[in-house]
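Quick illustration, no need to memorize.
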Amino acid sequence: MYKLTPLLKGIITGVVMVICSLLLYYTDVSLGSSLHYIIYIMYAAGIVWTLISYSNSEAYTGKFSDLFGQGFRCFIITILIMVAFTSIFSMLHPEFAEEAAVQYRADLLKEGNKLPAEIDKLVADAKKQYTTGVVYFTIFGYLIIGAIVNTIASITIVLTKKK
């Protein structure tokens, strides 16, 4: 029987997350909907799947570091897929940057402490850097979530297997 590596599990997880993201977008689910959490649930499930299958294999040593390393391999690949997807999707939809710029302008006007020329420059810069910012937050967010899920699941599995 062919065993799936953490790399392949990360690819499968990332592809499932991309499909879920596209389904949510093209079915017009609002950004405020709790349905968007399904993407994070898929991400966590992919990491836990990797950890559980490794802990049930002959290669499992019982060490936290080995188990965490397997989960890490999975979630790094998943992050790379999500970053690529986010970059491409953002570039294909420049209207997102436009909408964000309109909201940013409204926020700056509401503050009332900037001159119109300053506001125009800040909004233009924000629009130009929109994709970079979205990708930055994608990387950072998925790294934090992946590390937390991986750590908690690895500790839980190591402690459960010791009993």
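The mean pLDDT is 93.
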